[in-house]
Amino acid sequence: MVIFLLSSKNSHSARTIPQMATKLPPILLVVFLFLITGVQIATTDEPIPSPWQHQFHALLFMNYSGDLSMIDLWYDWKNGRNFNIIQEQLGGITYDLEWNNGTSFIYSLDESRSCRSAQLEVGILRPNWLDGAKYLGQQHVNGFLCNVWEKVDFIWYYEDVETKRPVQWIFYTGREAHVMTFEVGAVLEDEKWQAPLYCFNKEKKNLSSREGGLREFRGYKEKAIL
Ligand SMILES: *[C@@H]1O[C@H](CO)[C@@H](O)[C@H](O)[C@H]1NC(C)=O
Ligand SMILES: *[C@@H]1O[C@H](CO)[C@@H](O)[C@H](O)[C@H]1NC(C)=O
Ligand SMILES: *[C@@H]1O[C@H](CO)[C@@H](O)[C@H](O)[C@H]1NC(C)=O
């Protein structure tokens, strides 16, 4: 390819070659073209993270500096909704429900009947939210060989090389999510997505950015990076 370009340049139609290139001695032009194609090969070789499945259920083991919790994550892009059901270790359950119109509710179903809501400019995470992440190579994590990416100093994401399933991610805050189960296509029944009445009838309390199961994602979306 390079040889062909050079010989066609030398034989005729020199005026069609850009000025910069014609000023280069042929040997430099070869190096120049080689570098360009070399760089292209290097970047296209790098793996990219799999887009999120449009519907899945994952059980996440969370560790935030020793505060442990389990999260039932129901990601449902098709229906424009996302649910984190958070069980604190030996503690209460918090329901963190997000709709693609930007409305979020965080509530409990116990006697406290608490509910806070937020209205964001953006909806739930898009399936391709990892696009543009920087590839960092491979690493063994809890016995799984993973490809590792970092996105805008916000998240470090580990995906199993073989199955392409997420194995863990770590937020910039140090909060770790370890993926314990990952069921593609699992959908939570519609009734379970209904926020309780007390989310609607009393004066709404606004959600602080420090609340919620995967609260870093909320901060990330608020910055509207995507
Ligand atoms: C949770 O993370 C801390 C570090 O932040 C670590 O020392 C601890 O061992 C972890 N706990 C579990 C159960 O993984
Ligand atoms: C967004 O959708 C949810 C679920 O249908 C609804 O409860 C909420 O009021 C909607 N928010 C807005 C701002 O329309
Ligand atoms: C909650 O946020 C909305 C919109 O940002 C604002 O208009 C409202 O005053 C806030 N309410 C409280 C109680 O802070």
Automatic annotation (TrEMBL):
InterPro entries: At4g14100-like. This is Transferring glycosyl group transferase. It comes from Eutrema salsugineum (Saltwater cress).
